[in-house]
Amino acid sequence: MSFPSLSDEQERGLVIVLDLMESAKSKAAAMKEKQSKKRKRAKHREREIQSSDTYMKKIYDIDKIHDHELQTSTMSKVPKSSSFLDKMRARLSGGHFRMINEKLYTCTGDEALNYFQEDPALFDVYHAGYKEQMAHWPQQPINIIMNWLRDHGPSLTVADFGCGDARLAKSVKNKVFSFDLVSNDPLVIACDMSKTPLDSSSVDVAVFCLSLMGTNYQSYLQEAYRVLKPCGMLLIAEVKSRFDPNTGGADPDKFSRAVCNIGFTSILKDFANKMFIILHFKKKEKVEPKRKEIEWPELKPCLYKRR
């Protein structure tokens, strides 16, 4: 059987038709494969959801068992080991603390105040984590400051900048004005520490115990200068690594010079403790003319590693 010959134009048309048919065939195969993969992914997601539901049910069951144990146990009994759920809660709490801690070291005091005003509960999360970290320190700097105040008598009026739970005010006989970003205690005044409600030259001692946290920390020290009486004392306790130039910390001598340029005299530098340093400054009796702009060293953030 012979086929009629085709003209060049007909041949080109036939080639185009065949190409279109081949292309349609390839697209159909690709679509089929795509649908197959889509069905496989859907089945995989379904298995994941089922697995997640099973896992969450286990968590729920563990939680119920844990609550039952708490209800049935006597007050004298102490669990021998933490449950899996307790460990997960602790890990979550630790993560929240590290996040908030980093935020406080890398923002201004005004930004930190707004941060906690939006969600005051974060303040409790932060201080719970802070107490957990402090539990690992062999000595607490707040105790050294308490002892200093006891040695110098209850007549001194104190401003505690970054007071936390107002432990200092609750532990000494002195009149203590306690300032922090959130007030969960009648003794605490919530404010930006660079703008306290105290009158100028109204207190004898200003305390910063691990609280020079904002990027504008120098404004807190300038506020301390404002509220201190002439010859008043500035007591600073800070994490030692923040003042170690070998690990990226500030030069302690440069920091002291900057504080002195506000109008203080350096009285004490104590680097004996391996965890923190103690610095004492005394406000000069006479106000000196303002010098050129003070060069403040950047203080290294104290960021806690995941345990």
TrEMBL record:
Its EC number is 2.1.1.-. Keywords: Chromatin regulator, Methyltransferase, Nucleus, Repressor, rRNA processing, S-adenosyl-L-methionine, Transcription, Transcription regulation, Transferase. SUPFAM superfamilies: S-adenosyl-L-methionine-dependent methyltransferases. Residues 35-44 have a biased composition (Basic residues). Residues 28-48 are annotated as: Disordered. The keyword Metal-binding does not apply. Its main location: nucleus. GO terms for biological process: chromatin organization; methylation; rRNA processing. One of its GO terms (cellular component) is nucleolus. InterPro entries: RRP8, RRP8_N, SAM-dependent_MTases_sf. GO terms for molecular function: methyltransferase activity. It is found in: Nucleus, Nucleolus. The keyword RNA-binding does not apply. Pfam families: Methyltransf_8. Belongs to the methyltransferase superfamily. RRP8 family. PANTHER family: RIBOSOMAL RNA-PROCESSING PROTEIN 8. Probable methyltransferase required to silence rDNA. This is Ribosomal RNA-processing protein 8.
